[in-house]
Design a protein that fits this description.
The complex is a heterodimer of chains A (498) and B (84). Chain A is built from 25 helices and 2 strands. Chain A is mainly alpha-helical and 498 residues long. Chain A has one domain: Orthogonal Bundle (Ribonucleotide Reductase, subunit A), CATH 1.10.620.20. In chain A, strands 1-2 form a two-stranded antiparallel sheet. By secondary structure, chain B is an alpha+beta fold. Chain B has a 4-stranded mixed sheet with strand order 2-1-4-3, with helices on one face. The longest helix of chain B is centred in the middle third of the chain and has 10 residues. The chains are: A mainly alpha (498), B alpha+beta (84). Chains A and B meet through helix 18, helix 20 and helix 23 of A and strand 1 and strand 2 of B.
Chain lengths: 498, 84
């Protein structure tokens, strides 16, 4: 039997805007779940997804994608990339899989909420495919990471991380719960699909794929390129939604949601992408600096998307531009210094040649962040590893849940705010502004420091904190990725001089 | 005698640090406690100089002999430490 051409039946199949007779519409699409904001069904039915696909086509293409990824893995496993890879690259894999794999399942739930609650029929249809995408991403990344568990127990965090109270996980969960899991379908699609996916997943899945290929990890490169091909499709869910909101007087709401999501995404990606790109990727394999990728994907492309929709750049644009050269360098110093709290072993990335590269890409680095590394390096040269690990905890931002870092001598400060008798601490005025948009939404959450000070962590010492975070329980914590071998280069230079 | 945590912003450091001290400590003792977590770890020592403390953002330091409980600071409030 001949199949009808897609164009002959597609619009009929997706137009599921039924007239309900037995149940009030408000009970089927509660406002808190759908976020339709009084926009009529007639308007929602005009939602026109830019990417149209049928289930038959979808399954065929996805099967081909999976075949490609899994066959590359099978072929390259024989080459044993793992044994030959730079330890910094292995750390990238541990960080990535631990931070991303099970969040993909959360993203499947996110998309499923559009399937059920969105009032736009076209969006419900496309989100069904988005939901299946995210399940594929979770399963693939868990499978690929599982291969490495027998080689190193820290890969177990790929499956377990989100069940722990590790500080990095607290930060990721606070972010993803806020953006993916707890808002209505309309708000979530703007924040997650438009701001997060069109902006930031490019960084991780395209930027890092280039580095992976250069580093010889073609399996990981193929995997994340395959994932990004799905992201590029379902990320487009948000754009027609924004057009409807803007045309119906909801521009301010859309702008506020984008402003919140873009900043929160930026902060978490300084850890997930910024640090690996500028410090863990072996120097000879680096494609571009993190700042250069940010300028291409966010500062140019994302800003152009905003402009095309008639939206504005976020009010904090100048702060973001300055932060591109600064924030992740502080987080690198922090993660490396508190390396026993991590599920991966961070590369320091500050050998003499690497410092030259950092100074070239970030002029002024040596006079600021470099000064802190000078002290750490001096202690290591003298054999005092113990003097490179802090004896206290960093103060944590009550929005990003990351340590409050800044540029030494210039931009390090607390941005406090007292609310309900409690003193909150923020890493920037933007983090504080987000909290102030809806204090009741955020005020009950406790940062790791709040938990430590209120007696939730026992014994209240560093050993107790590590166990609370799953270190020594799931796996051992991190050390220096290269076991401090980079310090020998400084010893050699010193020997030549003397 | 009561635990009184403060947030330390030590000049030259890259991160704010939690410093547990006692409300009976003088600001000189508080500065000494903050220094333990920054000097020779992330910040180079400056021999011969003393460390002063001031409420974050203010220009005048606390007198060295003022006790923490009389400083007007709230628990976890940020204090700037710097060499003088």
């Amino acid at each position: 039997m001949a199949l009808l051409d897609r164009s002959e039946w597609y619009d009929i199949a997706r137009a599921t805007q039924w007239t309900f007779q037995y149940v009030p519409e408000e009970e089927i699409f509660p406002e808190g779940h759908s976020g339709s904001e009084g926009i009529s069904n007639e308007v929602w039915s005009t939602y026109d997804e830019p990417y149209k696909v049928t289930y038959r086509e979808y399954v065929d293409v996805q099967r081909q994608k999976d075949s490609g990824v899994y066959s590359v893995k099978a072929a390259l496993d024989r080459l044993d990339m793992y044994a030959k890879a730079d330890p910094g690259w292995i750390s990238i894999l541990k960080l990535h899989y631990g931070a991303v794999s099970t969040v993909e399942y959360a993203a499947a739930l996110q998309e499923s909420r559009y399937v059920r609650w969105s009032k736009a029929p076209g969006m419900r249809n496309m989100a069904t495919f988005g939901m299946l995408d995210e399940i594929r991403h979770a399963q693939a990344q868990l499978f690929f990471a599982h291969e490495y568990v027998s080689k190193d127990r820290q890969f177990d965090w790929s499956h377990e991380s989100m069940k722990t109270q590790n500080w990095g996980v607290l930060a990721a969960r606070h972010f993803f719960d806020d953006m993916l899991m707890s808002r209505d379908a309309t708000s979530t699609a703007i924040m997650a699909n438009f701001a997060f996916e069109t902006g930031f997943t490019n960084l991780q899945f395209i930027g890092l794929a280039s580095d992976a290929s250069n580093a010889g990890d073609f399996t990981f490169a193929k995997l994340i390129q395959s994932i990004q091909s799905d992201e590029a499709r379902h990320a487009q869910l948000g754009t027609p939604l924004l057009q409807i909101l803007i045309e119906n007087g909801q521009k301010d709401r859309a702008q506020r949601l984008i402003d919140i999501a873009l900043w929160r995404s930026w902060k978490i990606f300084t850890i997930l992408t910024g640090i690996p790109m500028d410090y863990y990727v072996p120097l000879e394999h680096r494609e571009s600096s993190f700042k250069e990728f940010m300028e291409e994907w966010i500062i140019d492309q994302f800003a152009r998307s905003l402009n095309e929709l008639g939206l504005d750049k976020p009010w904090y644009w100048d702060i973001l531009i300055r932060d591109l050269s600064e924030h992740h360098h502080g987080q690198q110093l922090g993660t490396w210094s508190w390396r026993p709290t991590l599920w991966w072993s961070p590369a320091a990335g500050v050998s003499p040649e690497e410092r030259d590269w950092l100074e070239e890409k970030y002029p002024g680095w040596n006079k600021t962040f470099g000064k802190c590394w000078d002290v750490l390096t001096e202690n290591l040269k003298n054999g005092h590893v113990e003097k490179t690990i802090p004896g206290t905890l960093p103060v944590i931002c009550n929005m990003s849940n990351l340590p409050i870092v800044g540029t030494p001598f210039t931009h390090l400060k607390d941005h406090p705010w007292e609310y309900g008798g409690r003193l909150y601490h923020f890493g920037s005025e933007v983090d504080r502004w987000i909290f102030q948009q809806d204090p009741e939404r955020y005020s009950q959450h406790k940062s790791l420091i709040d938990r430590f000070l209120s007696g939730d962590i026992e014994p209240a010492d560093l050993g107790g904190v590590l166990a609370y975070m799953g270190i020594g329980v799931l796996s051992e914590g991190g050390g220096d990725a290269h076991d401090y071998s980079w310090v020998d280069k400084y010893r050699s230079i010193e020997a030549k001089v003397s | 005698m009561a635990l009184f945590p403060i947030t330390s912003n030590f000049e030259g450091d890259f991160v704010l640090k939690l410093v547990p001290v006692d409300d009976e400590n003088t600001m000189a003792e508080v500065a000494e406690a903050a220094a333990v977590h920054s000097i020779n770890l992330h910040v180079a020592e400056q021999p011969g100089k003393i460390i002063r403390a001031r409420r974050a953002g203010e220009s005048e330091p606390f007198p060295l002999e003022v006790k923490l409980k009389d400083s007007g600071l709230m628990p976890t409030e940020c204090v700037d430490f710097y060499y003088e």
